[in-house]
Amino acid sequence: MKTNKLNISEKAKNGRNGAQLVYVLDCIRNSASAYDNNVTFENDKEVIAFFFDHFEKEFNYQDNKRRFPNLSERIGEYLRRLPSCCNIAYWDDDILKLGLSWGVIDSTEGKKAEKFLNNYWCVLGVRICQAAQKVGLNPYKYVV
Q: Do the domain assignments include residue 144?
């Protein structure tokens, strides 16, 4: 049996950041694009590479690099447009339920919930960049 040394999902399940990281990886793994193309992933490095391949082809062009110079923000904007490579929660109610399950908010109403909604996309962009670094990929090659 082959040992998977790049599977960060198992290591990252504890804590808020870990739950967000596992969520993003699962959303990519279970995406329409992966399903439609019968893609299977051996490890998390392949999952992240799959995401960045789609990101590069579909959204990371020069105009968007100028519009969104921060990579995490650019990835967040890409996710906001519901790419087929990431089956991510989109509706506010679903996003707030995630916030509750992650322990980021304790109610779906109020300023804290509103702030969570406003930051959701960028935070997931940060988690994708962190995942890339954890598996040995350089997300910042997509900056320029």
A: no
Q: Give the domain range for residue 47.
A: 15-136
Number of domains in the chain: 1
99-110 residues labelled b (16+ CB within 10 A) or e (exposed) = beebebbeebee
33 in a structural domain: yes
For residue 18, the Cα-to-chain-centroid distance in whole angstroms is 12
Backbone angles phi, psi at 80, to 5 degrees: -60, -25
Say whether 108 sits in a helix, a strand or coil: coil
pTM of the model: 0.88
* SS3 state at 101: helix
Note the pLDDT tens digit of each residue in 95-106.
999 999 999 999
